[in-house]
Amino acid sequence: MDASVREKLRAFVRERLPESRSRHPFDDSDSLFLSGQLSSYDAVELILFMEAEFGIDLAGADFDQMLLDTINSITQLVGTYGNKGLLAAGSGTGIGLP
Fold first, then answer.
1. Least packed by Cβ within 10 Å: which of 17, 75, 79, 93?
2. Is residue 95 a part of any domain in this protein?
3. What's the rounded mean pLDDT across residues 52-66?
4. Quick check: is 52 in a domain?
5. How far apart are CA 74 and CA 7, in angstroms?
6. How many angstroms separate the CA atoms of 58 and 62, rounded?
7. pLDDT tens digit sequence for 15-27
8. Total domains in the fold of the chain
9. Do residues 62 and 93 make contact, with C-beta atoms less than 8 angstroms apart?
10. 55 lies in a domain?
């Protein structure tokens, strides 16, 4: 995976972490949403960012929130579906990582 994708995702997440947390390093395997570090509003912003930056189309897709919970899982999602259009790459019934 292109390191710049991971760095773009990390920068995006870092901007949204609570101020007390954003000054401390976080690991790419740290939980972002299930841990309460980021909110559902942040999830919407992340999805919009991924659509604009990496060409991922999540419109109408059912997916597991675990796919957005860590930098590692988000990076894998981008690597799998970026710039292809999610529904064109999958079955159209939802997503899962291969």
1. 93
2. no
3. 77
4. yes
5. 12
6. 8
7. 888 765 656 678 9
8. 1
9. yes
10. yes
Domain extent, residue 84, equals 1-11+39-89
Cα–Cα distance measured from residue 89 to residue 31, given in angstroms and rounded to the nearest whole number: 27
Question: For every residue of 43-78, which 3-state class applies, written as one string?
Answer: HHHHHHHHHHHHCCCCCCCCCCHHHHCCHHHHHHHH
> What span, in angstroms and rounded, lies between the C-alpha atoms of 60 and 3?
29
**Shortest CA distance to 96 belongs to which of 72, 62, 47, 71?**
62
**What is the amino acid identity at position 84?**
K
- On the 0-12 / 13-18 / 19+ scale of CB atoms within 10 A, 56 is buried
Q: How far apart are the first and last CA of the chain?
A: 15
Band (88; pLDDT cuts 50, 70, 90):
very low
Examine residue 29 and state whether it is found in any structural domain, yes or no: no
- For the four alpha carbons of 80, 46, 42 and 91, in that order, the dihedral sign comes to negative
Interatomic CA distance for residues 57 and 14, integer angstroms: 23
pTM for this predicted structure: 0.74
